TrEMBL record:
<dbReference type="GO" id="GO:0016301">
    <property type="term" value="F:kinase activity"/>
</dbReference>
<keyword id="KW-0418">Kinase</keyword>
<dbReference type="InterPro" id="IPR003682">
    <property type="entry name" value="rRNA_ssu_MeTfrase_G"/>
</dbReference>
<feature type="binding site">
    <location>
        <position position="89"/>
    </location>
    <ligand>
        <name>S-adenosyl-L-methionine</name>
    </ligand>
</feature>
<keyword id="KW-0963">Cytoplasm</keyword>
<dbReference type="InterPro" id="IPR029063">
    <property type="entry name" value="SAM-dependent_MTases_sf"/>
</dbReference>
<dbReference type="GO" id="GO:0032259">
    <property type="term" value="P:methylation"/>
</dbReference>
<keyword id="KW-0489">Methyltransferase</keyword>
<comment type="similarity">
    <text>Belongs to the methyltransferase superfamily. RNA methyltransferase RsmG family.</text>
</comment>
<protein>
    <recommendedName>
        <fullName>Ribosomal RNA small subunit methyltransferase G</fullName>
        <ecNumber>2.1.1.170</ecNumber>
    </recommendedName>
</protein>
<dbReference type="Pfam" id="PF02527">
    <property type="entry name" value="GidB"/>
</dbReference>
<feature type="binding site">
    <location>
        <position position="150"/>
    </location>
    <ligand>
        <name>S-adenosyl-L-methionine</name>
    </ligand>
</feature>
<keyword id="KW-0949">S-adenosyl-L-methionine</keyword>
<dbReference type="GO" id="GO:0008168">
    <property type="term" value="F:methyltransferase activity"/>
</dbReference>
<keyword id="KW-0698">rRNA processing</keyword>
<feature type="binding site">
    <location>
        <begin position="137"/>
        <end position="138"/>
    </location>
    <ligand>
        <name>S-adenosyl-L-methionine</name>
    </ligand>
</feature>
<feature type="binding site">
    <location>
        <position position="84"/>
    </location>
    <ligand>
        <name>S-adenosyl-L-methionine</name>
    </ligand>
</feature>
Amino acid sequence: MSAAAQPEPMVIDVNDAAAFATATGCDAQAIADLERYRSYLAEWNEKMNLVGPATLDVFWSRHAWDSAQILPLAPEAKTWADLGTGAGLPGVVLAILGKGRPDFHVHLVDSLAKRCRFLSEVVTGLDLPATVHNSRAEDLALTVDIVTARACAPMSRLLGYAQPYLKRGAVALFLKGQDVASELEDAARTWDFEADVSPSRSDARGQIVRVRRLGRGRKS
């Protein structure tokens, strides 16, 4: 494993729609779509566990901004795959912000059918440049620029899900928590990879891991 820390960016407090618009430079249509997405989350959360109910009160910082912060890290990327997307985070947020960009598309990948029904309703209702895949991530043969995930799996398993995408030329951008160092150490027992880690701009405890090269290592 080769991992390097990056200069620490400043955490930006994004507590409402106006602050989100300032932080991302998005337009009024994107804000309206994000508001509708929050409504979908609240409605469906009463039927199934998509996100923690309390996090809907901090939607703009916890979900919208946390997801949106990775978009500027790959400004030229047009195709994304969000593995184990769950409620659509970060993928739905990326699709909302990428709406209208030529050839921009997000693949939302989840193995649970009922979550995919929710995602399909959101994608159709908001007319998003996204495709929902009810599948295991490693079973798909998608070629994308960026593969991403948030709260999907520990790094050792997540690298296994992402390996087919990286083999086809993708770069990985994973949103991780404060235990990323131990996760990377554990992953290095079975994987050989190059990664850099940078602090989240939405939460001082969060980290973003960029993986460019990945191969099987030797078990210790």
